[in-house]
Write a structure and sequence with these properties.
Strand 13 (169-173) and strand 14 (176-184) form a beta hairpin. The protein is elongated, with a radius of gyration of 22 Å. The protein has 240 residues and is an alpha+beta fold. The protein contains five helices and 17 strands. The structure holds uracil.
């Protein structure tokens, strides 16, 4: 499939920190080449077939980027700056590009796996309850988990007298009655907290540990990002 666009759009879109006017300057000085030849910033290129280099380094075309963030508490899943810092501020410069957004929301005090991408289509598929993509959480609670909680969650409970939840899977942790894993295939507002609240309990710590078939990388420190390789993207949509 060909992907024809102006050279300045290509370079500015692929390389962080390059404005279109910077591309023009670079072209004037012969620092950007298309298939080995000096190029004009407004010339059309095919991002899939042409070889574009800047100062001798080939620019490998990526239509989208996919970033795994281990979100710390205190950051909001939003693109807009308010009173709190946004997760986008944690994306390192080398991965940053315009159009990035967090695919789905974790609360400000929730930690763990957030996908940051500029791929709206994948985000939609991942978040739609119709796709049944599981999101798994590690949950710590104020009080012991009641014995009937797993069955209540599995049956598809109603929260706040009006919102019907899809069946969710609770896995107990041996010798610990105040912590568990909970897997949901949807993302209602404060859903985990509200589900436990409906059983008379309270979530005191929450961390998302997987999306679809992809686990949060165990070596990724809180606040760190890593780029998800294109070959692994499909795992985000895998049924578990
Ligand atoms: N459920 C919640 O209550 N909070 C989150 O951040 C995610 C799921």
């Amino acid at each position: 499939m060909s992907k024809v666009m102006r050279l300045d759009k290509f370079v500015a879109g692929q390389l962080n920190g390059f404005s279109r006017s910077a591309v023009k300057q670079y072209c004037r000085h012969g620092r950007i080449l298309v298939n080995g030849k000096k190029a004009a910033s407004d010339q059309k290129i095919d991002a899939q077939c042409d070889v574009i280099s800047v100062d001798g380094e080939t620019v490998h075309y990526k239509e989208h980027v996919y970033i795994m963030l281990n979100k710390p508490q205190g950051y909001v899943c939003s693109t807009r700056e308010g009173n709190s810092p946004t997760v986008l501020e944690l994306v390192p410069k080398r991965l940053y590009r315009s159009g990035l957004f967090p695919a789905g929301r974790l609360d400000k005090d929730t930690e763990g796996f957030v996908l940051i991408t500029d791929d709206g289509e994948l985000s939609h598929k991942m978040l739609s309850p119709k796709s049944h993509v599981d999101k798994k959480y590690y949950v710590e609670l104020k009080d012991d988990i009641r014995d009937d909680t797993a069955d209540i969650f599995a049956s598809g409970m109603t929260i706040d007298n009006k919102e019907v939840c899809l069946p969710a899977r609770l896995e107990r942790i041996k010798d610990n009655d105040k912590a568990c894993y909970l897997t949901l295939c949807e993302g209602k507002f404060h859903q985990v907290k509200r589900m436990f609240m409906a059983t008379g309990n309270e979530v005191v710590y929450l961390k998302r540990i997987s999306i679809g078939g992809m686990e949060l990388d165990k070596n990724l420190m809180t606040g760190e990002c890593l780029e998800i390789l294109h070959k692994d993207i499909q795992k985000l949509l895998d049924k578990t």
